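Tutorial handout. Part one gives the primary structure; part two gives the three-dimensional structure as tokens.
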Amino acid sequence: MNQILNAQRLIQLSQFHPKLKNIWYLVAAATFSVCNEPQEIPKLYHYAMLLSNDNAHMYRFTLASQTIDLLRSELPMRKTLINENYQQPTFFQKQLTAKFREVILKIGPLAGLPRAINGLTMLKETTPDILVPHLDPIDPWEAAMGNSSPLSETSMRRKHDKTIQERDHTIQNGLRHWNSIYNKVSTRVVNNLNSSYPDLWYYTLVHVYGPLFAFDEILSAQETSLVIIASLVPQDVNPQLRGHLKGALNIGCDKETVEAVRGLAILISQWCGVSWKSGVVKL
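Part two.
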């Protein structure tokens, strides 16, 4: 499998821009996922985890090399070393793990479910056992007969809408989030999607914005907005990227941060061999 990140590039990403100090790894994870390079996600994850320790910034060069060496080791030894390193994960490391999962989940409707599956699988394989949820197996055959649940509801971060009222609440949250992003052009964009195919707008609202993009218990609305920008940059979809660049400002991100996210996503896309037909739109 192609390897793109080395120690020097990890350091380059972590120091790309001061505004991205606490989000560079999420922006990078989204971009690599969309570029179909999920093997790079564990490097970002473990480097960010190591940098979260006290005084880690003084040893960022050493930690970058340690990250590469750790993930280069053979599988049984690698898993043992990972578990030894995180016997007592900090609150921040638990939070960081949840954020990585959420980022990769949210790229699903933007870049395709297979890429989200591959990214989350790669992350799971290199996540410390103590940070992997322990779940009862799901039997899809029994669930299809109504004899058991098809969901691990007690471990899901989202609530499963069981009533019409709960579903309507989720949809309203999605609409509020949509309006915050698109602001003055919200009505025009909604009706453009709806007139293209009513089911397109239904899918966008009910299955993407409501339960996914508007969900802010793990990523903030601003973090989600920046991750979406990073996901759109490699795809050569300037009309959508333009809307989300402006939308990030509408939802509270400052211009310098938005431009830095765009720049970081372009750099990573270039490392992945992405080319664009007519450049990448900017603010």
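Part three, for discussion. The radius of gyration is 20 Å. Residues 7-133+161-271 form a domain with the AhpD-like fold (CATH 1.20.1290.10).
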